[in-house]
Design brief:
Blueprint (H helix, E strand, L loop, with lengths): L37 H15 L10 E5 L3 E6 L3 E3 L3 E10 L6 E5 L7 E7 L4 E5 L2 E5 L8 E10 L5 E11 L2 E13 L1
């Protein structure tokens, strides 16, 4: 008589294990298991909204103007800027009365941890007096205007911001100043 093959029952513990990573995935019922997490989309949307609303800098610089009687000063510089960026400051001085020596003076705290690359036109004379950088441009007649363009860069150590002022002098006589605050974001 013939022999019958022996069939043994193979139990669950006798099966070969699949290599790591090839197991069948667990059954999940959540919508985002096969798609991107909605949290990442919300975070990205919030960052884009903050940028569009101007909270991260890059918006047009608002001009600030002050009339001091003998002269009118307008300063246009960024109010919010990001660390490491280049920036431009426009200073316009309009004489309402004769000025023997039109001087633009800047407090060192305003330019703390900033690099000033160019100043056009260059002043006739530069000095440091009474705790300010003084830039002398010579005489101005009533109605005459001096426009100075300053290009600079925010240095990496500057965090949170800086403040100071830009003042106008007629020689050594102070005419007035505009206080400025620049917020620096990382």
């Amino acid at each position: 008589m013939g022999s019958r093959p022996v069939v043994a029952a193979i139990g669950q513990e006798d099966r070969m294990q699949a290599p790591e990573g090839l197991e069948s995935p667990p059954q999940r019922l959540r919508l985002w298991d096969r798609h991107a997490s909605p949290i990442s989309i919300l975070v990205l949307g919030a960052l884009l909204l903050a940028a569009v609303l101007g909270f991260t800098g890059g918006q047009p610089s608002p001009p600030r103007t002050a009339d001091f009687g003998a002269a009118r000063l307008t300063v246009k510089t960024p109010a919010i800027i990001r660390n490491g960026e280049f920036f431009e400051t426009d200073v316009t001085l309009t004489a309402n009365a004769p000025l023997g020596d039109a001087v633009i003076a800047v407090t060192p705290t305003l330019w703390r941890d900033m690099t000033v690359n160019t100043m056009i036109p260059a002043p006739v004379e530069e000095s440091f007096e009474d705790g300010r950088f003084h830039f002398s441009y010579g005489p101005l007649e009533p109605g005459e205007r001096l426009r100075v363009k300053i290009d600079g860069q925010i240095n990496p150590p500057l965090f949170a911001g800086t403040q100071g002022d830009i003042a106008v002098f007629d020689g050594e006589r102070r005419i007035g100043a505009i206080p400025l605050r620049i917020k620096v974001l990382p």
